[in-house]
Design goal:
A six-stranded antiparallel beta sheet has the order 6-3-4-5-8-7, covered by helices on one side. A three-stranded antiparallel beta sheet has the order 1-2-9, with no helix packed on it. The protein has about 200 residues and is α+β, with helices and mostly antiparallel strands. It is built from three helices and nine strands.
Length: about 200
């Protein structure tokens, strides 16, 4: 009887370790797939805002003089001076209705993600990107009600700001790869850098 119990304990421990290794490898693969080289790496010319965005108090005294103005979706993102010459590319996020079933398995929902890339980023030294997921108000409501999943993470994206048409959010686990400069990106995010208009 003791041999059976010890055998079961060993099987459970080995299975648990196997699951941990699988989860760790999956997170690494997801982090690597979320960091593609941009199709266009030319610096984006910034323009002054065409509308004055509402002001928000910042939580730190970080200076953010460089502005990225996205007129298509209506937001301005402020960056530190050393981000002058940044590049921007877009990619698509995919969402799945919850709960998953055979009837809604093929009804994926898609949206845009704007990625701001540090000007020091290279294939050899991948600096941390700033990803901004863009949702309609209805999509955001579905995410908040746990009716729409847009990530493998066990928690939803974090809201950065909004305007009358869109909600802008930071993907969960965006910085779990600990790329060069991830600490700077965290400081930028603490400064409420996104203003919707």
């Amino acid at each position: 009887m003791r041999k059976i119990i010890w055998g079961l304990v060993i099987v459970i421990v080995v299975g648990f370790i196997g699951i941990l290794v699988l989860v760790k490898n999956t997170d690494k693969k997801l982090a690597n797939s979320d960091n593609p080289a941009p199709a266009q790496t030319q610096p984006v010319q910034t323009r002054p805002a065409t509308s004055t965005p509402p002001t928000q108090a910042t939580s730190t005294a970080l200076s953010l003089p460089v502005k990225y103005n996205n007129t298509q979706y209506g937001f301005i993102f402020s960056l530190p001076a050393d981000w002058q010459g940044y590049s921007v590319y877009t990619k698509q996020w995919t969402g799945n209705p919850l709960p998953m079933s055979d009837s809604n398995a093929k009804q994926a929902i898609y949206g845009t993600e704007v990625v701001i890339r540090n000007p020091n980023w290279t294939q050899a030294d991948r600096y941390e990107d700033i990803p901004i997921m863009i949702f309609t108000a209805d999509q955001w409501s579905e995410i908040q009600q746990d009716n729409l999943e847009v990530s493998a993470a066990p928690f939803p994206p974090s809201e950065l700001g909004r305007n009358q048409k869109y909600v802008f959010a930071l993907p969960p686990r965006y910085n779990y790869d600990f790329s060069t400069g991830f600490e700077e990106v965290e400081k930028i995010m603490q400064s409420n850098p996104l203003q919707g208009y």
